[in-house]
Design goal:
Blueprint (H helix, E strand, L loop, with lengths): L13 E6 L17 E8 L4 E7 L4 E6 L1 H9 L6 E5 L16 H9 L8 H10 L3 E2 L7
């Protein structure tokens, strides 16, 4: 099955959410405030559901949410969160070396973005440079 196969349910656009995680880890001081975690979600129109992908410290969470459940998830994000809408513009390249499996490299891999970022703030800059645009602005709890 490929991402072009309609049965795959691959969203045509990813929303990438940058925010502070509730937990503080040893690496937290290495990340800028507001950029301590990253997760991604996308809308699958044919199934009328949202897919949420979140690599946490203890496990990887993959959820299928209804539109109202997704609204509730977005509303629960911290007030200083930033969400970018990213639509891949070309075929992602296979990296020569994929380093690590924490939130940033995992979301880079999921979205197919061209980035070697290891921290959320660097990934944010890379997405903006590739045409990502702010999304879900003004939707606060």
């Amino acid at each position: 099955m490929t991402e072009d196969d309609p049965l795959s349910g691959m969203p045509p656009e990813w929303y990438v959410a940058f925010y502070n995680d509730e937990q503080r880890y040893w690496w937290s001081p290495l990340c800028r405030d507001g950029f301590r975690h990253v997760a991604a979600f996308g809308y699958c129109a044919e199934q009328a559901v949202w897919m949420l992908y979140d690599v946490a410290m203890t496990r990887t969470l993959i959820r299928v949410l209804t539109p109202s459940q997704m609204d509730a998830w977005v509303e629960r994000l911290p007030a200083n969160r930033r969400i970018l809408a990213y639509q891949p513009v070309d075929e992602p390249r296979s990296p020569a070396l994929r380093l690590g499996f924490w939130c940033t490299p995992a979301i880079v891999h999921l979205t197919g973005a061209r980035s070697r970022a290891l921290r959320p703030e660097a990934f944010y800059r890379d997405l903006l440079a590739q045409g990502a645009r702010p999304a879900f602005e003004g939707r606060q709890a």
